[in-house]
Specification:
This protein is α/β, with parallel strands linked by helices. It contains 9 helices and 13 strands. The strands form 2 sheets. A 7-stranded mixed beta sheet has the order 8-7-10-9-11-12-13, with helices on both faces. A 6-stranded parallel beta sheet has the order 3-2-1-4-5-6, sandwiched between helices. It is globular, with a radius of gyration of 19 Å.
């Protein structure tokens, strides 16, 4: 089992003929992702450099391929329209890799696409190790197992997963939710999915300063997942107040979004907070032992 995607998920790539879309389509195909075609307006009827059919519209791609998932590599000014097109065509899950989409565009999409799961924007995507990968994650650091991961940071995801893999802790599904102020799927949205996944025995949450997503996650864990072994990490602890750190969403405004509030929220519900990413495997093994005793 896995959440959000599996080896049978049929994926299209919006922007498949662009440089980024083409390159990462190749990487996803190498991993084993079932990519069935792509979309670039004006290039319908052609083949991508990987031999995949290219369509003018998402609706045309779905009619021909039966795709259920899309990966979006569309420039920022047009990415919201790409998401709307995917929704109107009937796509179930959209992974939006594009960085720099105007916040008001994302608000407009997130508020008017009920029933379609959106991962991102400005995210690395998601991967179910050994099954399928959608996005830009480096598949070689992942290994199949029973630890789920949700992260606001792409590069931190890879560092943490590499440590888990080296420690013999394989992963069920890893979701990079993105670092923008407004995103399609929050920690809580993903926690709901993991709570019903029989393959996932433990979780790692990699948060950042800014916003209240981590505090919301702690409240959800307390109410719905009290017995799940979970370990967390908060990035950006040393960022100056009022200064954005890497991600547009990673900014502290007054006492809002501080690392102290996030750490306290997790600790209050029994979720250990690592001081460094390298501590996560050890803390997770300890949490799994406690869970086994229970």
């Amino acid at each position: 089992m896995s959440i959000l995607l599996d080896k049978n998920s049929k994926v299209i790539v919006q922007g498949i003929t662009g440089a980024e879309g083409s390159y990462h389509t190749g990487r996803m195909l190498e991993y084993g992702t079932k990519i069935v075609g792509g979309v670039t307006p004006g290039k319908g009827g052609q083949k991508s450099e990987h031999g995949l059919p290219v369509f003018d519209t998402v609706a045309g791609a779905l009619e021909a391929t039966g795709a259920t998932h899309t990966c979006i590599f569309v420039p920022p000014p047009y990415a919201a329209d790409a998401l709307f097109e995917a929704y109107e065509a009937g796509i179930m899950l959209a992974v939006c890799i594009t960085e720099g989409i105007p916040v008001h565009d994302v608000l407009r999409v997130v508020g008017t696409t009920p029933g379609m799961r959106i991962i991102g924007p400005n995210c690395p995507g998601l991967i179910s190790p050994g099954k399928s990968s959608i996005g830009i994650m480096p598949g070689h650091v992942f290994t199949e197992g029973e630890v789920g991961l949700i992260s606001r940071s792409g590069t931190l995801t890879y560092e943490v997963v590499d440590g888990l893999t080296r420690a013999g802790l394989g992963q069920s599904t890893c979701v990079g939710i993105g670092g923008d102020p407004i995103i399609g799927s929050t920690f809580v949205d993903c926690l709901r999915e993991f709570a019903n996944d029989p393959q996932t025995r433990a979780l790692v949450l990699c948060g950042e300063i800014g916003g209240s997503d981590e505090e919301d996650a702690a409240a959800f864990i307390k109410e719905h997942m009290p017995g799940m072994p979970i370990v967390s990490f908060i990035g950006g602890r040393n960022a100056p107040t009022g200064k954005s750190l890497g991600h547009a969403g990673a900014i502290i405004s007054g006492s809002f979004g501080t690392p102290e509030s996030k750490i306290a929220a997790f600790q209050a519900v029994g979720v250990p907070v690592a001081d460094r990413p390298s501590q996560i495997p050890e803390l997770l093994k300890g949490a799994l032992l406690v869970g086994a005793v229970r």
